Structure to design on (275 residues):
C-alpha cells in the first residue's frame, strides 16, 4: 500500500514539476522570442541582399544584432521597395529594412528609427559616356527603382530626363548593361558593389551627390512606439560598443563611416513628425 501510495505521489509530483517547467518555458519563450516580420530586398548588396538562401547585408545584420539585444526575433521576407512602406503602415510587416532614406514625405506614412548610415546617390553610366552632370541627361533614359529616393532625385533634380522605373535593382543593372539605359541612379555603395562583382561590364560613376540629411533607418508603424524605442535603444548600444563600426567596415570596404556612428558616437537622431 505504501509502495503504491509512494508511486502515486511520485507521479503527481513529477506531473506538477512538468507543468511548472512548461509554464515557465512558455513564459520565457513569449518574453524572449517574439518574432517580427521584416520586409527587405534580395538584390541590393552590400546593404540588403540574399546569399545562399539567407538574408544578409549591413542593414539586416545590424537588425539581427539589435533584435538579440532587445529580446525579439526577426523573420525576413523579400519584397519590392515600391510597396514596402505601405506594407509596414498596414501591419503586413513589423519593420522595413532596406536602406530607407528618412525623407519628410515618408514620415507621413511611417515612423523611423534613428539613422544607421548615410551615403551618396550616384548615376552609373557606360564608360566613356561623358555624362558627369545632371544637365547632360536631358533627353536621356534614366533608370530608377520605383518609389526610391533615387526616383525622387531623378524626377526632381535631373531636368529633361526620361525616367524609367523598375521594381528592383537587378532589372535596372541588366538594362544598363544591355544599353537600354543611359544612366542608372543607385546608392553609390550598391553601384560600387556591382562594379566590383562585374569587372567585365564597363561602367563608371557619373554625377554623385551626398545624402547625409536623410540618413537610412528602419521603418515601423507610427503607433508602434514600443518597437521604435527598442530599435533606438538597441541601435544606441550597437553604436556605443563599436558593433555598428565593425559591421560597416565588414560590408562597406571603401565608404567612410560617419563620425556620429563611430564607437561611442552620438548616433544619427531622426525626428519623426507626430510620433
Amino acid at each position: 500500500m505504501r509502495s503504491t501510495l509512494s508511486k502515486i505521489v511520485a507521479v503527481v509530483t513529477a506531473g506538477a514539476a512538468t507543468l511548472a517547467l512548461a509554464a515557465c518555458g512558455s513564459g520565457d519563450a513569449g518574453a524572449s522570442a517574439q518574432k517580427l516580420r521584416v520586409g527587405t530586398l534580395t538584390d541590393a548588396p552590400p546593404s540588403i541582399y540574399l546569399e545562399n538562401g539567407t538574408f544578409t547585408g549591413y542593414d539586416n545584420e545590424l537588425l539581427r544584432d539589435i533584435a538579440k539585444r532587445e529580446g525579439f526575433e526577426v523573420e525576413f521576407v523579400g519584397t519590392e521597395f515600391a510597396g514596402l512602406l505601405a506594407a509596414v503602415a498596414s501591419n503586413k510587416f513589423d519593420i522595413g529594412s532596406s536602406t530607407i532614406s528618412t525623407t519628410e514625405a515618408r514620415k507621413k506614412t511611417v515612423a523611423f528609427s534613428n539613422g544607421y548610415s548615410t551615403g551618396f546617390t550616384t548615376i552609373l553610366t557606360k564608360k566613356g559616356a561623358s555624362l558627369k552632370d545632371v544637365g547632360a541627361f536631358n533627353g536621356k533614359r534614366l533608370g530608377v527603382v520605383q518609389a526610391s529616393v533615387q526616383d525622387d532625385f531623378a524626377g526632381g533634380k535631373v531636368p529633361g530626363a526620361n525616367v524609367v522605373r523598375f521594381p528592383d535593382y537587378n532589372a535596372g543593372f541588366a538594362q544598363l548593361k544591355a544599353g537600354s539605359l543611359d544612366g542608372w541612379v543607385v546608392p553609390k555603395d550598391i553601384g560600387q558593389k556591382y562594379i566590383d562583382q562585374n569587372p567585365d561590364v564597363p561602367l563608371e560613376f557619373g554625377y554623385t551627390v551626398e545624402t547625409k540629411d536623410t540618413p537610412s533607418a528602419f521603418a515601423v508603424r507610427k503607433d508602434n512606439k514600443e518597437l521604435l524605442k527598442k530599435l533606438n535603444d538597441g541601435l544606441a548600444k550597437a553604436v556605443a560598443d563599436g558593433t555598428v563600426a565593425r559591421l560597416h567596415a565588414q560590408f562597406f570596404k571603401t565608404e567612410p563611416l560617419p563620425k556620429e556612428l563611430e564607437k561611442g558616437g552620438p548616433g544619427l537622431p531622426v525626428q519623426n513628425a507626430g510620433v
Remarks:
- The chain has eight helices and 13 strands.
- The helical segments are 2-32, 58-70, 84-89, 149-157, 169-178, 188-197, 225-240, 243-251.
- The first strand starts at residue 34 and ends at 40.
- Residues 1-31 have pLDDT under 50 and may be disordered.
